[in-house]
């Protein structure tokens, strides 16, 4: 089950204390930045949960 990104909590890379840590940690390239917003590429997500565990804003959750 792919993750879901709460854009209100996330705030984008510019307001992330981890400076887009979720993107850096994703080995499958399932997370990308698009105009300062984090977007999910569902077909690349392998449910490893690294992004959920490491999001400093707790903006990434399972559906």
UniProtKB/TrEMBL annotation:
Record-linked InterPro entries: 4Fe4S_Fe-S-bd (IPR017896), 4Fe4S_Fe_S_CS (IPR017900)
Top-rank taxon: Archaea
GO molecular function, one term: oxidoreductase activity
Pfam families from the UniProt entry: Fer4
Signal peptide: none
PROSITE patterns in the cross-refs: 4FE4S_FER_1, 4FE4S_FER_2
Domain 4Fe-4S ferredoxin-type, first and last residues per copy: 36-63
Protein name: 4Fe-4S binding protein
